[in-house]
Specification:
The complex is a heterodimer of chains A (about 280) and B (about 260). Chain A has about 280 residues and is an alpha/beta fold. Chain A has 10 helices and 10 strands. Chain A folds into 2 domains: about 240 residues, Rossmann fold; about 40 residues, no CATH class. Chain A is globular and about 65 Å long. Chain B contains 11 helices and 2 strands. In chain B, strand 1 and strand 2 form a beta hairpin. The chains are: A alpha/beta (about 280), B mainly alpha (about 260).
C-alpha cells in the first residue's frame, strides 16, 4: 500500500444543525507510480477526500496512509507529508499573490527554507517541466498570462516542492481545448517519465481516461467502487445511474456493441476507436 | 474546525419565536434592553434571566449556542468582577488579601453588573439566533424608511447590509479554502513572531481581495441585468405583515415586563 485510506469518515461541523457527512467509510489503496482518477458528480466528496490525502483535513474517524504509514496528526509530520504530496486545488490560479511568475513558483521552495540558489534551480526545473516556453514569462505578472498559462504556472508552483505524488482537483475546469491538451501531455509526462504518482479528480471523463490506469467512483460521500480503470468502466449502468457518462468514444463503442457490431468497448481515444472499428470490420 | 459558526449566527428552526415578525422582534428587543438598564434589584434581573432561558427553550435552540454566545464576554466579566470586588468600598468587610479588602457592597454590585450583562447578551442572542440576517435587515430598513423623505437612503443601506451579510459566510469559506491551498504549498500561518505571522498573511489577503473585487463586479452586473436601479421602488418576496401571533407574543412580553417590574421594588 503506497497511498490510501482506511474507513475514512469526515463530518463537517459536527455537533451542529449544519453537520454534514462529507465522506463515509472510505477504504482504498493505490500503488506507487499509478495514474488514478477520482470520479464523481459535484458534491460527492472528491475535494474533501483529496484534502485528506496530504493532511490538510483531518479525518473525523478512520485513517490515511502514505508509504505504508498512518499519517497521524503530528504537525511536523504533516508538514513533511505536504512536501511529498503536492496538491493542486481547483482553479489554482486564484491563489496567486506574487508580483512575478518566478516568485509565485518560488513560494513553495522558499517556505521549505531553501537557499536562493536552490530555489532558482527548483523554479526553473518546475517551469521547464510544464513545457512553458520563453524564460521572459518568469518576469511577468501572473495576472497577465492567459488562462492556460496561468493553470500551468499554478501547477509549476506545486511541482517546485519536488513531490512524489501530484494530486489535482478538477484541473481542466474553465480551460479551452488546447490548454487541456497541454495539461494532459504534462500529466502523462510526469507520470511516465518522472515516475510521479498522479491522482486526478474529475466529473468529466473525456480525454483524461486514456491516461489513467486506476479509478475510484464516489457518490454522496461513499466509495461506490474502485479498481483497475477497465473494471470500473465496465460498470456502465452504475455510472449512468449517478449521472456520470463514460468518455464519448467509449459510449459510442458501447452503442456499436449493443447493436451487434463486435467491437471491444474498452477504448478511450479516437485513434484506438478507429483501429478497433477497422479491425472489427475486417473480421466481418 | 473546517467550517466554523460565527457567534450569534442564525440557527434554522420553526419555533414560534422563529416565525415572529422581525420588526416586532426588533421593537421588543429594544424595549427589553431598555428595561434591563432600568432594573435596580438583583431579584428582578434573576427573573429576567429565567424568562430569557424559558424563551430559549421555547425557541428550541440548543444550550451549546448559549454558552458559545456568552464566551466573548467571559473575560470582560472576570475583569469587571475583580474591579468591583476589590475596589468598591461599603458594607461589611468579608475578607482581606494584603492591603486589599473585599466588602459586601462590591460583591453585590459585581454580581448585579454581570447578571445585567449576561441578560443583555442573552436577549440579543435570542433575536439573532432565531432571525435570518436578511429579515433583520429588512426589519431595520422599515424603521429607517421615514428618513427616506429627508434624503436618507434607507433602502440602499438595507441592500448594502443584506449583500454584506450574504457574503460573510462565502468569504469565510473562501479564506479557509485559500488557507489550505497555501498550506499545501508549505505556507505556515500558525508559528513565528507577530511580525512574521503578519507577513505570512500576504498570500492569504491578496487573493482574498482579488476574489472579493471580482465577486463584487459580477454581482453588480448580475443585479443590473435583473433590472436593479438605485432609487427604484422595490417589492419583497416575503410578506412581513404583523400577524395575530405577533400581538399574542407582544402581550406575553408585556406581562413578563410587568412581572419583572414587580420584583424591582
Amino acid at each position: 500500500m503506497y497511498i490510501g485510506t482506511e474507513q475514512l469518515t469526515h463530518t463537517y461541523m459536527p455537533g451542529t444543525p449544519f453537520a454534514t457527512e462529507a465522506l463515509q467509510d472510505i477504504t482504498f489503496n493505490l500503488k506507487q507510480g499509478c495514474f488514478a482518477l477520482i470520479i464523481g458528480p459535484s458534491g460527492s466528496g472528491k475535494s474533501t477526500l483529496i484534502q485528506h490525502l496530504n493532511g490538510l483535513l483531518k479525518p473525523t474517524a478512520g485513517q490515511v496512509f502514505f508509504a505504508g504509514q498512518s499519517t497521524g496528526s503530528d504537525k511536523k509530520a504533516l508538514l513533511n507529508l505536504r512536501k511529498k504530496i503536492g496538491l493542486v486545488f481547483q482553479m489554482p490560479e486564484e491563489q496567486f499573490f506574487s508580483e512575478t511568475v518566478f516568485d509565485e513558483i518560488a513560494f513553495a521552495p522558499r517556505n521549505q527554507g531553501l537557499g536562493e540558489k536552490e530555489v532558482a534551480k527548483r523554479v526553473s526545473d518546475a517551469f521547464k517541466k510544464t513545457g512553458l516556453k520563453s524564460a521572459g514569462l518568469l518576469k511577468r505578472h501572473p495576472f497577465q498570462l492567459s488562462a492556460g498559462q496561468k493553470r500551468l504556472v499554478a501547477i509549476a508552483a506545486v511541482l517546485s516542492l519536488n513531490p512524489e505524488v501530484l494530486i489535482l482537483d478538477e484541473p481542466t475546469v474553465a480551460l479551452d481545448l488546447e490548454s487541456k491538451n497541454n495539461l494532459f501531455n504534462l500529466l502523462a509526462k510526469l507520470n511516465r517519465k518522472e515516475g510521479l504518482t498522479v491522482i486526478v479528480s474529475t466529473h468529466h471523463l473525456d480525454d483524461v481516461a486514456a491516461l489513467a490506469d486506476t479509478a475510484l467512483v464516489l457518490n454522496q460521500g461513499r466509495l461506490m467502487l474502485w479498481g483497475p480503470l477497465e473494471e470500473v468502466f465496465s460498470r456502465r449502468e452504475l455510472l449512468h445511474e449517478m449521472g456520470l457518462s463514460l468518455p464519448a468514444v467509449t459510449e459510442i463503442m458501447h452503442s456499436l456493441a449493443e447493436s451487434g457490431f463486435p467491437v471491444n468497448t474498452a477504448v478511450y481515444t479516437i485513434q484506438k476507436a478507429q483501429q478497433e472499428i477497422m479491425a472489427a470490420k475486417k473480421r466481418g | 474546525m473546517a467550517r466554523s459558526i460565527t457567534m450569534g449566527q442564525y440557527i434554522p428552526g420553526d419555533s414560534i419565536i422563529h416565525q415572529l415578525n422581525p420588526r416586532f422582534k426588533i421593537i421588543t428587543l429594544i424595549m427589553v434592553l431598555a428595561l434591563l438598564f432600568l432594573l435596580e434589584t438583583l431579584a428582578a434581573l434573576v427573573v429576567s434571566l429565567c424568562a430569557a432561558l424559558a424563551l430559549f427553550a421555547l425557541a428550541g435552540v440548543s444550550f451549546n449556542y448559549l454558552l458559545r454566545g456568552l464566551r466573548p464576554i467571559l473575560y470582560i466579566s472576570i475583569f469587571a468582577l475583580i474591579i468591583y470586588f476589590f475596589f468598591t468600598p461599603g458594607g461589611v468587610v468579608l475578607f482581606r488579601i494584603g492591603f486589599l479588602t473585599v466588602e459586601s457592597e462590591g460583591v453585590e454590585q459585581g454580581i448585579f453588573i454581570i447578571a445585567r450583562l449576561v441578560a443583555l447578551v442573552l436577549f440579543s442572542l435570542l433575536v439573532t439566533l432565531t432571525t435570518t440576517p436578511l429579515s433583520l435587515t429588512h426589519g431595520m430598513a422599515y424603521f429607517f424608511s421615514p428618513l427616506q423623505r429627508l434624503g436618507f437612503p434607507a433602502e440602499e443601506m438595507a441592500m448594502i447590509m443584506a449583500v454584506a451579510l450574504r457574503f460573510i459566510p462565502t468569504l469565510m469559506e473562501e479564506s479557509q479554502r485559500l488557507m489550505r491551498a497555501q498550506q499545501a504549498r508549505g505556507a505556515d500561518f500558525e508559528t513565528g513572531s507577530i511580525v512574521k505571522r503578519a507577513r505570512n498573511l500576504v498570500p492569504l489577503i491578496v487573493p482574498l481581495f482579488v476574489s472579493a473585487f471580482r465577486r463584487a463586479d459580477e454581482l453588480a452586473t448580475a443585479m443590473e441585468a435583473r433590472g436593479f436601479r438605485i432609487g427604484a421602488k422595490r417589492t419583497r418576496m416575503q410578506d412581513d405583515r404583523i400577524a395575530f401571533k405577533d400581538w399574542t407574543a407582544l402581550a406575553v412580553i408585556l406581562v413578563l415586563i410587568v412581572l419583572v417590574l414587580t420584583f424591582n421594588f
